[in-house]
Structure formats: structure tokens, C-alpha cells
Amino acid sequence: MMKSIDEKHTIAVEKSVYDEYCKIHPNCRNLYGVPFPYLNEMESIYGKDYATGKSAEGFVEAVENLEKEATVPLSLESSDEDVTADGSSTPPLKKVKIEQNMKRGRKGIDTAKGSQTSEFIKFENFADNINVHLSAMANAMKRAEDRETEVHDREMELAKMSDKVLDELLALEGITTDEALAAAEVFLAQPHKLTLFFKCSSALRTRYVKGLLGESQGGRS
Fold first, then answer.
1. pLDDT in tens, 113-157
2. DSSP readout, the chain?
């Protein structure tokens, strides 16, 4: 079983080792780099079994073992009963002891059931907390991935428009080469204006460029 945790409570092994482990244990995928803040609590509960390589005793096994310990052969009972002076009978001593042992056994079983139930509830709460934690992290990672995809797509779109903006400007009627170059510089410096230029119809592009160059020249003067 793979077990290597750093001070951040994350899996601290090489990614290649983790990937090989996930081939055998596919349920552990997507946990690389995920913190497990409750690991120490789990270690204190199941550490002994982990160290010896034995699996923890389950609830059903505990009950069965206690029932076996509480079982006493019926052959120990005596068929004879003591008779008192007034003629009444009393249970034999062996039978009384057997009944007492059985009561103690049942009490032990009830105690074990309560202990096992408590541990099960603790583990169930721990698992629920882990699921909530992993779900929140998955949602955050999904949102971050969506934002990165959106930014990347936007950058690619601007790059394509930047590559062909000069050709589009030179193709406009009434726009000189110098004006086309000046407008291209403005568009590359201010991408939002480049986007607006490509949204304009062919008839509006010339007017937009003329107005843009007028603003630029007015700002310089």
C-alpha cells in the first residue's frame, strides 16, 4: 500500500510512481496533490493494524468472537438441584455460574457493539468530510480551468485578428498606407478597439478608422 505524506498532508511521491499505483488502484486517481488533513487521526485509530499488516477487526467479526468467548458447553450444567429444608429447590451452583457468564458475555457484546458503532460513525463523518473537501476542490479546479480556456481562446482570437488587420486596413477605400499603419499601431496597443473594428461592417470601418486617427492626432497635438 502506498503511504508517503509531506507536511502539507499531500501525497509526496514521484508522479510516475503515483501513476503506476493508480493502475492497480484506479479508485485513487485524481488524489495527487490533494491534502488529507485528517490523516493523523486515521493513523491513531488504525495505526496498529497498519503496522502489523493485519486488517482491522470488523463489527461483525467482533460480535462473533465475543459470542464464541461467551459460549459455555451445556454439559457443565447439573441435572441435580439442591433441596432446602422446607422442600424448595435451588438452582445448582454450576448453572448459576453459567448464567452469570452468559450475562457478562451479552454485556460485553453490547459494549463492543456500541464501541464499533462509535468508530464507524467517526469514520463515516471523516469520509463525508473528505468527499465534501474533494468536491469543493474539483469545482474550484473546474472553474480555474474554464477561465484559463477562456483567456487562451481570447488570446488566440486576438492573435488571428492582429495578423490580418493591416491587410484589412489597406483594403479600405480612402485610407492611405500611412493611415493604415498608424491605425494598426493603435489597434495592437488597444485590443478592444481591434475587436470593435472587426465587428464593424465594411461601410463603417473607414469612418471608424478616420475617427480613431483623428482622436490619436488630437491627443498628440
1. 666 787 778 777 777 888 887 888 888 888 888 888 888 887 888
2. ----B-TTSSB-S-HHHHHHHHHH-GGGTT-TT---TTHHHHHHHHHHHHHHTPPPPPHHHHHHHHHHHH---GGGS-S--EE-TTS-EE--HHHHHHHHHHHHHHHHHHHHHHHHHHHHHHHHHHHHHHHHHHHHHHHHHHHHHHHHHHHHHHHHHHHHHHHHHHHHHHTSTT--HHHHHHHHHHHHH-HHHHHHHHHS-HHHHHHHHHHHHHHHHHHH-
- Please state whether the predicted TM-score (pTM) of the whole model is above 0.70: no
